[in-house]
Amino acid sequence: MPKSRSKRATLASLAEELNVSRTTVSNAYNRPDQLSEELRMRVLETAKRLGYPGPDPVARSLRTRKAGAIGLLLTEELAFAVRDPAAAQFLSGLAEACGAQESGLTLIPASEVGDPSRAANVVHQASVDGFVIYSVAEEDPYLEAVVARNMPMVVVDQPADLEGIPTVSVDDYAAMKTLADHIFDLGHTRVAILSIRLNPVHHNGPVSAEDACNARMHVQATRISAVLDSAAGHGIDADDVVIFESFENNYSSGGCAAAEVLKSHPETTALLCTSDVLAMGAMQYAHDHGISVPEELTITGFDGIQEAIERKFTTVVQPSERKGLRAGELLFASEHGPVESERLECCFQVGETSAPPRA
Predict the structure, then answer these.
(1) Which of 87, 116, 300, 329 keeps 20 to 30 A from 293, CA to CA?
(2) Domain for residue 27, yes or no?
(3) What is the 3-state secondary structure of 27-75?
(4) What proportion of the chain, given as a percentage, has pLDDT over 70?
(5) How many CB atoms lie within 10 A of CB 321?
(6) Mean pLDDT of 93-102
(7) In the structure, what pLDDT confidence band is assigned to residue 7 with cuts at 50, 70 and 90?
(8) Alpha carbon distance, N-terminus to C-terminus of the chain
(9) Which of 2-6, 258-262, 296-300 has the lowest mean pLDDT?
(10) Angle of the 22-30 helix axis to the 11-18 helix axis, nearest 10
(11) Is the Cβ–Cβ distance between 299 and 279 less than 8 Å?
């Protein structure tokens, strides 16, 4: 005959064993400051002996109406959050903010082409107390579903200007224009922009200046606009600036984009990339094909990820980890009243991948 399982310990049976109230047992887990250290340890040690796992988190959430977690909405597959260096830095900062509040973090991925019904289902099933929206396109169905839940939320980077919703961002235009001015001041007149996705529709290839500047992913559109304005200020027509879009932000995309641009526009002397990852992919292509950087080709990035810093790229360093930290802190602070948007500072770094164009 199989051995019968012992009866599962409960909060009530633990309280009875200790001859204390159920509130005392609950406080040992949820409000330890309400008990002496001696009593709390006696409760926890007895719980361990009896096999009591602690208060049921579902029951607790029903009672407190708090899920004990915040949701991070990103319109990428889950792997992006840990594979992309800038996103990983951001996630680290956000996790730090959650840890300080003893809160969990739920990642909510969105599909490449948003299905409104699926979006609503995914978002509404998320058991969270609020949302951080990380670089999502305007009119994205997942974004609309989050807004419809009417919960505390903070936007990071984009979309901008959502009424009543605080944002954490950087001045992408000013940062990119500083970098572009540096390149044109060096004497470059034949440049190309390698950009990560401009719209939530799969596309790899050339893009017109008009389409790029009106893209739905406005962070990338803003960076491109800054380069074009800088070009105009140096007497270079926008139509003479090549723009190439890569849907994925990875090394392979950077290499492929560099190959396409340099084959179709061999007169190009500078590649201005809207991410360090694309820049490093372009650098690998140049190395593999015997193109000397920066003597024959200037390559610049944006983000300031660790690898780009170590390899002395000319780039814009943005505080990705602090973005995540401040986004989380603002979200938790918003539970107690309105919070203000924040714009963090970037730093332009002149490295060893930019130089005057070849003669």
Answers:
(1) 87
(2) yes
(3) HHHHCHHHCCHHHHHHHHHHHHHHCCCCCCHHHHHHHHCCCCEEEEEEC
(4) 91
(5) 18
(6) 94
(7) low
(8) 90
(9) 2-6
(10) 110
(11) yes
Residue with tokens 């170590």: 310
Give the pLDDT score at 63.
54
Q: CB–CB of 277/250 below 8 Å?
A: yes
Name the strand (E) or helix (H) holding 228: helix 218-233
CA separation for the pair 16, 322 (Å, rounded): 48
Q: For residues 304 and 350, is the Cβ–Cβ distance under 8 A?
A: no
- Tell me, yes or no, whether 189 and 300 share the same domain: yes
In this structure, are residues 160 and 216 in contact, taking their beta carbons and an 8 Å threshold? no
Distance (Å, rounded) from C-alpha 177 to C-alpha 227?
6
H/E run at residue 132: strand 131-134
Residue 25's alpha-carbon distances to 16, 19, 113, 320, 355, in angstroms, are 10, 10, 49, 41, 68
Q: Are 181 and 297 members of one domain? A: yes
Give the helix/strand (H/E) hosting 347.
strand 347-349
Structure-token pair, residue 88: 């990983």
Tokens 């400051």 belong to residue = 33
Q: Is the pLDDT of residue 268 over 70?
A: yes
Task: Check whether 115 has a pLDDT greater than 90.
Answer: no
Q: What does DSSP assign to residue 290?
A: T
**DSSP label at 255?**
H
Q: What pLDDT is stored for residue 55 in this prediction?
A: 66
Instruction: Give the domain range for residue 278.
Output: 172-318
HEC string of 166-215 equals CEEEECHHHHHHHHHHHHHHCCCCCEEEEEECCCCCCCCEECCHHHHHCC
Q: Are residues 88 and 51 in the same domain?
A: no
Query: Which contiguous run of DSSP H or E holds residue 252?
Result: helix 251-264
**Spatial contact of 188 and 242, defined as CB atoms under 8 Å apart:** no
Token pair recorded at residue 268: 């190009």
Q: Are 228 and 241 in contact (CB under 8 A)?
A: yes
Contact 34, 21 (CB under 8 A): no
- Same domain (yes/no): 337, 299: no
Tell me the three state secondary structure of residue 302. coil
Counted domains in the chain? 3
Q: What is the pLDDT of residues 342-359, one digit of tens each?
A: 999 999 999 999 999 987
